[in-house]
User: What shape does this take?
Amino acid sequence: MKVLTSGCFLAMALCFPVFAMADDSPETTSDSSVVADDSADGSANESADGSPDATEILKGVDRALSIAEDFRATIELVTTTASGRTEERTMTVAQKGQHQRLVQLTGPARLRGVGLLAKDEGQLYIYLPSFGRIRRVAGQQRGEPFLGSNFTQDDLSRTEFSGRFEPELADEDSEHWTVHLTPNEPDDEPYEHLVIKVRKEDHQVPEILFFEDGSQEPTRRLTASDFRREDNQVLAHTVIVEDLQSESRSVAKLSDVEVNTGLSDSLFTRRYLQR
Assistant: This one.
């Protein structure tokens, strides 16, 4: 087991969050010097006309997000409104495999115990101690803000893209692909479409733009920055979600990450969520 205390953070996230086992002394690198892992080597199959295959690009993103067998960590989340008012949240996150994730609030005291549980086949549950019950979250309810932050319930529970979206390559340059994502099940998605930027060298996603129905401009933006290499795994240490209409922003950072500790399946149950 390796413990990361330097704040190793989201590979994208938008899928939030994803980690890898790291060296005890992380090395900061520039985008041009990072080394990609074998499962996301910066290449993509080409279509008949010679352009990269968007489906393979998206599968590469999912592979880059599935690094460790399991992990747990602490998230420090600060939301700042346009007027400058700030709200702080502290939460723990645990994940096993690609489809089981548990998020629980630990602070402030009035919110302690609020939790989200993501299970196989897209099941998402929220527990609110003040109501004493668990509620299933479905469809466009996933796009609701999570406890006053700019992160939505979907941001905190999303674990993959390929099964939910039809990708189309919109643009590319020497370093990135820009991919347009259309939901396979529009009635079950909070946004009309997403546009993601994918790094060619490692399939990390430094930016996601979120578009609502009929909107020509994005209403939300997620950016991942401060990429570092941890044992040839590339991770972003800071993730920011901006509401482009209200001009508020939420900044999330990680600490005290434990990787591959053998988390039990019993942790990812509704019974545990309600403890």
Remarks:
- The mean pLDDT is 79.
- The radius of gyration is 18 Å.
- Residues 54-65 form the longest helix (12 residues).
- The chain has one domain: 2-23+37-273.
